[in-house]
Design goal:
The structure is a homopentamer of 253-residue chains. By secondary structure, chain A is an all-alpha fold. In chain A, 80% of the residues lie in helices and 0% in strands.
Chain lengths: 253, 253, 253, 253, 253
Amino acid sequence: MDLATLIGIVVAFGVIIGSIALGGSAGIFINVPSLIIVVGGTFAVTLMQVSLKQFLGSFKVAMKAFMNKVSDPEVLIDEAVELADTARKEGLLALEGRKISDPFLQDGIRMCIDGHASDIIYKMLSKEINLELERQKTGAKMFKAIGDSAPAMGMIGTLIGLVQMLSNMSDPKSIGPAMAVALLTTLYGAVIANAVALPIAEKLNGLSSAETLNKKLILESISAIQEGTNPRILKQMLVAYLPEEKRNNNKKK
Amino acid sequence: MDLATLIGIVVAFGVIIGSIALGGSAGIFINVPSLIIVVGGTFAVTLMQVSLKQFLGSFKVAMKAFMNKVSDPEVLIDEAVELADTARKEGLLALEGRKISDPFLQDGIRMCIDGHASDIIYKMLSKEINLELERQKTGAKMFKAIGDSAPAMGMIGTLIGLVQMLSNMSDPKSIGPAMAVALLTTLYGAVIANAVALPIAEKLNGLSSAETLNKKLILESISAIQEGTNPRILKQMLVAYLPEEKRNNNKKK
Amino acid sequence: MDLATLIGIVVAFGVIIGSIALGGSAGIFINVPSLIIVVGGTFAVTLMQVSLKQFLGSFKVAMKAFMNKVSDPEVLIDEAVELADTARKEGLLALEGRKISDPFLQDGIRMCIDGHASDIIYKMLSKEINLELERQKTGAKMFKAIGDSAPAMGMIGTLIGLVQMLSNMSDPKSIGPAMAVALLTTLYGAVIANAVALPIAEKLNGLSSAETLNKKLILESISAIQEGTNPRILKQMLVAYLPEEKRNNNKKK
Amino acid sequence: MDLATLIGIVVAFGVIIGSIALGGSAGIFINVPSLIIVVGGTFAVTLMQVSLKQFLGSFKVAMKAFMNKVSDPEVLIDEAVELADTARKEGLLALEGRKISDPFLQDGIRMCIDGHASDIIYKMLSKEINLELERQKTGAKMFKAIGDSAPAMGMIGTLIGLVQMLSNMSDPKSIGPAMAVALLTTLYGAVIANAVALPIAEKLNGLSSAETLNKKLILESISAIQEGTNPRILKQMLVAYLPEEKRNNNKKK
Amino acid sequence: MDLATLIGIVVAFGVIIGSIALGGSAGIFINVPSLIIVVGGTFAVTLMQVSLKQFLGSFKVAMKAFMNKVSDPEVLIDEAVELADTARKEGLLALEGRKISDPFLQDGIRMCIDGHASDIIYKMLSKEINLELERQKTGAKMFKAIGDSAPAMGMIGTLIGLVQMLSNMSDPKSIGPAMAVALLTTLYGAVIANAVALPIAEKLNGLSSAETLNKKLILESISAIQEGTNPRILKQMLVAYLPEEKRNNNKKK
């Protein structure tokens, strides 16, 4: 589990809140109606773009960004090479019942054991990869939608505040505080978009790319295992999935 | 029918109107000339980009965003598996007269019964999918055009108001209210774009993707049915169209 | 001929001018030096991006946006089906001298009569479609360039005005009117971009897509006619080019 | 040679300078430190993105935008048809020593004379086209980078000026002129980007597209010449590279 | 090693700092809380989008932008031609133990010596190119993320400062300096984005393109060497990777 997203959001809010506290009167930064128009408006506008099910599922998707569970490609390579070794020495059926950590790799191996033709396995797993990628993009897109709507709702809130302030300027002393309140919605919108929604969307996209790459590595491994490729050659083929520096470590092992 | 878009637009406007009402004098937010320049201008500029027929058809397209009628892929899979079962046991002709819920699936099955070659059916249905996707994109693009024009017309309105105000500043008391009125067009433009047009455009795009995915599922089913694929294998193939969690439920059945 | 673009531009300018007139002193909105910097600058900057020939040809291209002459796909389908019927009953040569409304369809039929091989006809017409699409994109791109330059020149004009005003603020009364004049270039730029150039660019792109789709329909028809396809099947194939609702009307006929 | 870019830049600067001169005190628009931060900063930031060689070569690339030397496709078609005629009547070797205006066409013809296989010639020339296109894109990208950096450096300069002005407001009379100076960098940035760099980038892209199209025309001609295609048919094939109106002129000849 | 990026960043900061120093009181431009919110916030938000490992590795990636070590294609061509010459005269095995400057070329030659089939070598090296390109894009993307976050955090800081200032305007004299401080975060954000992060991201992308092109050149060379292509013809093939002017020099040699 990678803590980067959690650390990032805690530090980001720490810095923002610290900078507010430093100014003394932190209370002026909390305004319930402003919060309602930005948060409520953003959620409402995002809800318009999706189905109820997708909307309610978004919290679960967001959790995924905080709990980075993408398998390490090095581990996958080692596991695939071991499987290839067993399959070569004792036949594909020897892999039956074997404990495999990655569910996608397990699915593929099970298909091999079931005796499906290699081109059918390849086609089915490829389709699985593409469709899963599509589903993950939908999750990231919802956070992108939140990140696009929040500043817009913030601006709408500020415009409402400005119109109210400008149409009633009898008391010059009230202008400053009224404008401060009007600007709060813009601030809320900017924080929600830039310190919450857009980074989560980006993170989900990144996770999704890493997972897809892992799945392509697995797909290649499965084809090789089924064809009875030499495990040494398989390792040489898969090493391209690692960056230069990790590759050297891997060779030493 | 999914109510997300309807709930979303009601809540969004509720939040905006509530926030205006809270300020007391809601009347200052209604200005007929400002409304005419933003709404009229936006419609005029959008009309420039399309044909009269497309423009008048846009209300019907918008209704589609509110009445989400995309078939559930689980239901489609069950139906396709049943059809495959019948076709395998009693032949393709046994599907004649069978009630099929999805019109695209029905068209495909009818083509199979009519005895067209499988590659011709595949080509015709694929073309149908692509052309329908193209048509749906045109609908979404019109709402995108509205969403792009509304803030521009809002800015034009505000600039006109500012020029009028600035060129006649004899009475300092009138500056505030005059500027409030000038800002109204920007507010109208922002609301039309961000709380109406752009979310509808996004929703239409989402619906269109979901429909296209369903049609690809159907296309795959039809090819399998025509080839007399084992219904159990067909189910295994189609399950990739479902997210992980639904897949498990589906297996239990 | 579709009047949408013409009606749109008239209404858009009507709304803008009406909103100016409502404010009383419409005269302040006309400032010749401001007009020269925005209009002249925009044209100059656009001219930099193209050749003289393209620039001078742009007015002709703009006229195209106002005179929508894209053939109705229904009419094309009917004509293609008729031609297929004749070709099937009396041979391809019977189409010689036949009056054909669409020039692209006519070119294709002439090639068939001339006895070219079907794959050569397909390749030549496909290339023709792609190259024509490329040429039309160039036209739309020039209006996009105008739409991008106009607000930039408007901003440059406003900055010049502001610098002049700010560096000479001896008379406080002159500040308002000076700033009003400075804002005029921004207003001109916004109107040229959003109510003229960008919608025309969008319209040209839309026309171009519709024409390309028609040409693909024709390409498919010509291949079918040359192969002597059954007119009933050709109609079934081409009907995919129509939206659902038109398709039903077409079936009833 | 097409003078559009030269005329365009002269008129654009004429309009801007004229509009400044009209205001009287043109001197206030020249501020050496402001010029240094915008021009120097923009060049420095652009230099960061490329290699020294690319940076120094950019002036040569810019000259290309002003000296439009793209061959006229009509001339190329006539030349190709003549070559095809000679090759058909007297054999490919008769083209040896023949003066050919376009270097790319000459290269291709030389390859034919050297007796390379047609698929190798096709592959080598295609690669040449793609790699040259890639190189030209790099040139245009540098001017795009200048056009993106200049407004950013302008904004940085204005922010520096504003901070200096705001932190020292003891003399109210100095506020106006100080702000005028602060705005100058924004103005410089906007002029460099919108009246120089971005139009040149766009022009280079346009030239590059036109050249690539010409090269595709030549590639097609060379294949046809090598295969001994009938010159009349070659002309019919190449005419698709011309717009409708030029095509008619070409037919009459 | 190309110094462009190093020179660029030094000049950019020199110009910015010089322009600040010119204004006299450079001290007002340093504000530690403002620095913390922009720098800390930007790093935190960027950290949210990646894994800890990627984040910590970013400094190493940034160094790459400053130490341009992309091989010169001319040198690669000369080396490849020499290798082809040896391989043709003395056989592939004669290349064993030969010192080769480029590691990717060396890997490919080793594969040839090991006797792998040419299509397998081609496939493995192509995959290596694509995966390496993907990894390099991830590095550039992180600097793009920094460049997108910094202005956003700058704006958030300015909004916080404005709200604090507006809600407490009892002392008119403090307004100017308070606003100056509020603007500092916007300035910091603009400098970080436009003079550091975005140019580095662009540079990394450029390096990555140049490296990929070199690798494609090597891939082509290796295929040719394995097939025993004539070195003179290989040179002719590879020369397309050089711009026109270098090509002539190369021919003279």
